[in-house]
């Protein structure tokens, strides 16, 4: 089957799909209502009803396509933290009848994380525990530590919890002490229980990635928002500078995936203890070339914009935020069916046409944020077309959450609602961030 995804096709036929309308007050109000309904009536209730582990504390996340718990008892730091973040931040959008229950969900998740994940010997948080909280993998992944900082800072902001903020700051300090690469900059990404750097290759002790450094930026943004401390602001500015100087093609507008320790681009590989290595279906790219993730690029655009706003300013290069969106629309968008493809050669053809939930939900925020900033109708149309694909193909409205992975046309490949990596974070956050932007547009 011919794929209509070449740069030539996309440049010739931008948004000619039937049913994609220009933005007006009615379409804006209708889209906002659909998004708010999906968040309040579907996603929040789905996780409130199922995810709290009433026996051991923390969160259950492995749910099949019917929303039934699948029995997987693995608790990863990244997902437990994301669930804590979700019940904290998304309580802003919850109905009044949900707010008390959401606070309880956040409180018990916080206590589980600090009680069972925190390493009392070396400091920092374990990567994985069993369902009952006993350690399963005591390693220290910068990715996991960053989400702990992010979640604890958000929880502290929302519920005025000083203990949570203390843990966030301690974790930040441990990263500076043990994970920061003082020779080349940035951070080592995989470390062992005692904070020694992991071996190279698939264990990633010899490489760095945009993914991890982007989420460190995200964590430092919320940490600075919570503390207002100069050291947190400086490290946030440093992380932004590192990403823009080494990890992004700022002329064209896309991110590279992986680097050696000196930030020289290298072919991306599957790294142990990552989503790429552990997803159920794992179509890989085995070519020595520059690859990019379209969803990451769009996510980076709005996360950068948010970071600058928290610091009280605007991007030094506002055009870059737009280039990241435009690159995804030119090379990574499916104008026939809707939605964002998974991976491709940086400024050439798409390589993986599967569509993953997180990239498409994050793209909702990126495109709508682009419309708020630039008032260019192409971003509104991109948002609407993506929302239609998300609403009609990704979302299992009967159950209340998003399917994980679809083929190009929207047929399910992996239909589960949750797994040890998939919780409320991408789906709930995306819809909440969109609601914030609807508020700006409707003023």
How do the strands and helices of this protein lay out in sequence?
Blueprint: H1 7-12, H2 25-50, E1 75-76, H3 77-89, H4 96-117, E2 128-129, E3 135-137, E4 140-141, H5 142-159, H6 162-179, E5 190-191, E6 207-209, H7 210-227, H8 230-247, E7 248-249, E8 254-255, E9 258-260, E10 265-266, H9 275-278, E11 291-293, H10 294-310, H11 318-331, E12 343-345, E13 350-352, E14 355-356, H12 357-374, H13 377-394, E15 395-396, E16 401-402, E17 405-406, E18 412-414, H14 425-441
Antiparallel strand pairs: 1-2, 2-3, 4-5, 6-9, 7-8, 9-10, 11-12, 12-13, 14-17, 15-16, 17-18
Task: Provide structural commentary.
With 443 residues, this protein is mainly alpha-helical. It has one domain (7-441): Glycosyltransferase. 51% of the residues lie in helices and 10% in strands. It has 14 helices and 18 strands. The chain has helices spanning 7-12, 25-50, 77-89, 96-117, 142-159, 162-179, 210-227, 230-247, 275-278, 294-310, 318-331, 357-374, 377-394, 425-441; strands spanning 75-76, 128-129, 135-137, 140-141, 190-191, 207-209, 248-249, 254-255, 258-260, 265-266, 291-293, 343-345, 350-352, 355-356, 395-396, 401-402, 405-406, 412-414. The strands form 7 sheets. A 3-stranded antiparallel β-sheet has the order 1-2-3. A 3-stranded antiparallel β-sheet has the order 6-9-10. A 3-stranded antiparallel β-sheet has the order 11-12-13. A hairpin with a 4-residue loop joins strand 15 and strand 16. Helix 6 packs across helix 7 and helix 12 packs parallel to helix 14 (425-441). The longest helix is centred in the first third of the chain and has 26 residues, at 25-50. The chain starts with 6 loop residues before the first helix and ends with a helix. The model is unreliable at 1-19 (pLDDT under 50).
